[in-house]
Amino acid sequence: MSTRSSGFIVLCDPEGRIREVLADNLWMADPVQPGGLLPALAVTADAAKIEHLLTTVNREGSAFGWTIAAHHGGRPMSITLNAVKIENDILVIGSPNDAEALETLAEVVRINSELVTHVRGMSKRQAHARPLGTQDDIAAMSRLNNELVSLQRELARKNAELEHSQRLVSSIIDIAPTLIYIHDLTKERIVFANRGAQSILGHEDLVGAEGLHTLFSVHIADDSRAERTRTIAELAGAADGELIKWDLRVRDAQGAWRILHTRETVFARLPDGEVSQVIGAAVDVTEQRVAAERLRELALADQLTGLHNKRGFELLSAATVERAARSRKAIGVVFADLNDFKAINDECGHAVGDEALRLFAAALQRCARRADIVARFGGDEFVVLIDEGGDTGPSLLAERLHAELAAVESPCGRPLSASVGAAVGRVGGMDDLQALLEEADRAMYAEKNRRKSAGA
After folding, report:
1. Is 333:384 a contact under the CB 8 Å cutoff?
2. Please, what's the largest Cα pairwise distance for the chain?
3. What is the rounded CA–CA span in Å between residue 56 and residue 14?
4. In whole angstroms, what is the distance from residue 415 CA to residue 13 CA?
5. What class, spelled out in words, does domain 8-97 have in CATH?
6. Among 12, 112, 228, 244, which is most buried by a count of CB atoms within 10 Å?
7. φ and ψ at 235, to 5 degrees?
8. How far apart are CA 93 and CA 148, in angstroms?
9. Is 288 helix (H, G, I), strand (E, B) or coil?
């Protein structure tokens, strides 16, 4: 009964090296020291499990309910680890699975039973006219009473340490930049929530269980409402420790939509094994998602004209080709080239040349349908993919483009015009689309050469 077992709280770096021990007086027989490695706390067989926990936290931001066997005075002891990533550090809380506390309580019960048995034995001796309260009786009762008082003090100390740990964990959960909650599936309501809801979303009425319930009933987007129904069904069949991940889209106090990447796992079950409660942690990833989408758009867009670039055209055209292959309908391809672009650049400068390209791209975009894919392949060459345009789609687009350019005011006094080539055909894959592009390109250069021969 000389060791203590209320757990530990440490800050470590992403590799698991302990930077700071926040509660060094709460560990057991084996000390937790700054500079030590977190995996070294586990028995050899479970060291890899802690390394996996660190990988999970570095990737996902948190990990809850990981059970390992830790060194404890020369013997293994079962503890539960919970970890949250805070900026560049990882906060790890280790709590024993109450084995020693139960052992202490059992010892108290045993000594109380011995006292009762001893007193009953003295009563029986008194009934048989034997002397009551002999020196042996007094010594035994004194010894048992001293043991009982000592154990009661030990139990009170353990309870005080446990309460301290619980207050510390509660404070950490409340200040964490993460929305942490417990959803009771049987009551269909939130029964616990930290203050992350207010700090992330700004809704003052979301603090506490009742308030957070409005997060799922009032502020949630329609698409997330359907996703929530799906995840609840998935959680009902999930194993303990299995993480279910989904994105929750909710409106913040300013009316803007926020994206919360949410991870949930089973927290409690009914006696028949049915899942009754799940615990979840949600992190605001709105800025990361917006930035990623912006980078994707930049990678697929032509920076001068705002049209798709060649890579964007190739990615988007794959879906059109797939639909056309299934329906066995023809698609059309148009190649358009800005005439005299080199002369515009030479006579008026590159800035005017860039403006001419922007005006040409805008005219081409106005001539195309919403479903068409319009792209700049580079230089003064532009491409339009016409979905289910038939034989007339490309020719109609060419006519509209000539009329549009005739109405455009040229930035350098030289009228804007185009050479256009087209090709129409059925496709079974991207190779067939490439063949149509080459055919349209040849047709465009043929028209450009006819124009030059005619002196236009």
Report:
1. yes
2. 141
3. 10
4. 65
5. alpha beta
6. 12
7. -65, -30
8. 32
9. helix
Among 105, 100, 93, 102, smallest CA distance to 7 is for 93
Q: Position 64: which residue type?
A: F
For domain 177-290, give its CATH number from 3.30.450.20, 3.90.180.10, 3.40.50.300, 3.30.200.40. Answer: 3.30.450.20
Contact 24, 39 (CB under 8 A): no
Residue 339's CB is within 10 A of a number of other CB atoms, namely 22
What's the one-letter identity of residue 253? A
* Nearest residue to 97 (alpha-carbon basis) of 111, 83, 76: 76
pLDDT at residue 148, as a whole number: 63
Q: What sign does the CA torsion over 402, 403, 405, 409 have?
A: positive
Residue 153 tokens read as: 């003090």
Answer whether 383's CB lies under 8 Å from 309's CB: no
Ranges of residues in the chain with a pLDDT under 70 are 1-7, 22-32, 72-75, 96-146, 148-149, 197, 203-219, 295, 388-391, 455-456
Six-digit token pair at 169?
A: 């964990």
Q: What is the pLDDT of residue 421?
A: 94
From the options 3.30.70.270, 3.30.950.10, 3.10.310.10, 3.40.50.1100, give the CATH code of 301-453: 3.30.70.270
What's the pTM? 0.43
The full length of the chain comes to 456
Res 29: pLDDT: 41
What gap in Å lies between CA 152 and CA 108, rounded to an integer?
Answer: 7
Distance separating alpha carbons of residues 339 and 333, to the nearest angstrom: 19
